[in-house]
Amino acid sequence: MTTRSTIRSTDLTVDATQELAAFLRTRRERLAPGDLGLPSRRQSRRTPGLRREEVAELAGVSVDYVVRLEQGRGLRPSVDVLAALSRALRLSPDERAYLFDLARQRRPDDTDEPATTAVPTLARLVTDLSPLPAMVLNHRYDILAWNREMAGLLVDFAALPPAQRNSMWMCLMHPRTRELYVDRERVVREGVAHLRAAWAAHPEDRALSDLIVEFGTRDEQFARVWAERDVKVKGRGRKVMRHPEAGEIAVDFEVLTPVQDLDQRVVIYRPADDESRSAMARLPLR
């Protein structure tokens, strides 16, 4: 019998020291010596992944230092140490940025407060992008502006309470959009990985922490994926949807961040093939 996973509000306090410790442990445990060209040891390993001694050797730090980091004993590693650990643990660019955010060694975004309304020029831009579906999001996936095509593809945003105009909330909770994605597991995983990166970069955002608690309490899949601590900011990709009126639609999406408004993202969907282009032309305009 499996135990249901949930996320509690106390888990979202952004205790950077403890989260950094847990993140380093999970990244170490996912690696095998052979992945890094290290000789395999004959004796069996009691824990998965690399040993702390191996990480210390690869990063050029003492074993005691790695132990104290993984135990959350109040260390604040320098930029050089973080860079060395990132190389030793083979972190992706997004994971490396997450590590630096946790250590408070990366310059934060220029915005003091999360965006709650779209910049007027961006709101006009998504309208001008018709007939391509487009919308403006902030870092926590709140939908700030949209055009008719995006509403026709996903849901009538204007009919939703403002608190529910969040693309992750809709994917997890809304009865229509919950069943929209053909590969829902992947879509949820990518969304969770983005939210984890945003959570580390915006520790002051109480609304984001409250959203994560709600998702983790109400959706077991979200809680399970959140516990894996994957980090990835997805700037482009493909989604396949089964629209109840237009049929199956594959879209290639791009996420663009304006230089002057770093907390706002313009998301644009383009049909991935001729069949999807024809299906998109059948979308109801809301």
List keywords for this structure.
41% helix, Beta-Lactamase, MLTR_LBD, DNA binding, 286 residues, 12 helices, single chain, Cro/C1-type_HTH, 434 Repressor (Amino-terminal Domain), 5 strands
What do these coordinates show?
It is a single chain. This protein is of the alpha+beta class and 286 residues long. It folds into two domains: 9-102, lambda repressor-like DNA-binding domains (434 Repressor (Amino-terminal Domain), Orthogonal Bundle), CATH 1.10.260; 120-280, Beta-Lactamase. It has twelve helices and five strands. The chain has a five-stranded antiparallel beta sheet. Strand 1 (134-137) and strand 2 form a beta hairpin. The longest helix has 18 residues, at 184-201. The protein is elongated. The N and C termini lie far apart (45 Å). Residues 108-112 have low confidence and may be disordered. This is Transcriptional regulator. It comes from Streptomyces dioscori. InterPro entries: Cro/C1-type_HTH, Lambda_DNA-bd_dom_sf, MLTR_LBD. GO terms for molecular function: DNA binding. Residues 49-96 form the HTH cro/C1-type domain.
